[in-house]
Design brief:
Blueprint (H helix, E strand, L loop, with lengths): L2 E5 L4 H12 L4 E5 L5 H10 L7 E4 L2 E4 L1 H11 L11 H29 L8 H21 L13 H16 L7 H12 L1 H10 L15
Parallel strand pairs: 1-2
Antiparallel strand pairs: 1-3, 3-4
Helix pairs in contact: 1-3, 1-6, 1-8, 4-5, 4-6, 5-7
The structure holds glutathione.
The site of glutathione (GSH) has 8 residues, from α1.
Length: 219
């Protein structure tokens, strides 16, 4: 049975799983979550009532949460790109950076995006201000942590980069990484040029008009 991924090409967390699949050329059945495929949406809502995407289904198992999806792919369908190192000490850095990108880049980036879709009293300016402070703080930390590294956790592309690529792609749109954080800016450019990531960027391009803050004319 082929792996099925319920996803949308513009979703940052869907990119994270897609990049892992593309890295190893892992065959899968893309189940788009869009108005043209209402059956996919109904099945997805049954699989994961919280309606978070992506969701991976394989061999009767439903795998939720992108970090776990990538652990699953790496363990069950290993390819030339090992996304989590076998060495436990190296794996700690990879997993730590993965959590940092999700919690402290993706989350405050999404706060900006979700607030832009709210109207009137539902808006949360102080929450957005806090999210901006978090992004500034994590940009500075990452700029120092990534110094001298080709990829987020060292010399090898892996899980942390699958998380870092979409998080930094969109975070730089909502709160540009300043020139003083040259290491981080260079890492973002490098990771966006990786073929698996470039493919996700291209697949998302037709949806940019829907970016609620206005997509910048770059990338
Ligand atoms: N922690 C989850 C986050 C998934 C997530 O928040 N996905 C977003 C799309 S980028 C989503 O489904 N948003 C819809 C919503 O929150 O209603 C993961 O790693 O899979």
């Amino acid at each position: 049975m082929t792996i099925q991924l319920f996803a949308h090409p513009f979703s940052s967390y869907c990119w994270k799983a897609l990049i892992a699949l593309y890295e190893n050329g892992t065959p899968f059945d893309y189940r788009p979550l869009d108005p043209d495929h209402p059956d996919n949406g109904s099945e997805w809502a049954t699989l994961w009532p919280l309606r978070k995407m992506p969701v991976l289904v394989d061999e009767g198992q439903t795998i939720l949460e992108t970090s776990v999806i990538i652990e699953y792919l790496d363990g069950t369908y290993p390819g030339p790109a090992r996304l989590i190192p076998a060495d436990p000490a190296a794996a700690i850095e990879v997993r730590m950076l993965d959590r940092i990108f999700d919690n402290y880049v993706m989350t405050p980036m999404m706060k900006h995006v979700s607030d832009a879709m709210r109207v009137g009293d539902a808006k949360d300016p102080s929450g957005v201000a806090d999210a901006g402070v978090m992004l500034d703080g994590i940009y500075a930390w990452l700029d120092s942590r990534l110094a001298g590294r080709a990829w987020a956790a060292g010399d090898t592309f892996g899980l942390a980069d699958c998380a870092g690529a979409p998080a930094l792609f969109y975070a730089d749109w909502v709160r540009p990484i300043s020139a003083e954080h040259g290491v981080l800016r260079d890492y973002r450019a490098r990771v966006l040029a990786r073929p698996s990531v470039a493919r996700a960027v291209e697949e998302a391009r037709p949806y940019r008009a829907f970016f609620p803050l206005g997509a910048p004319d770059r990338d």
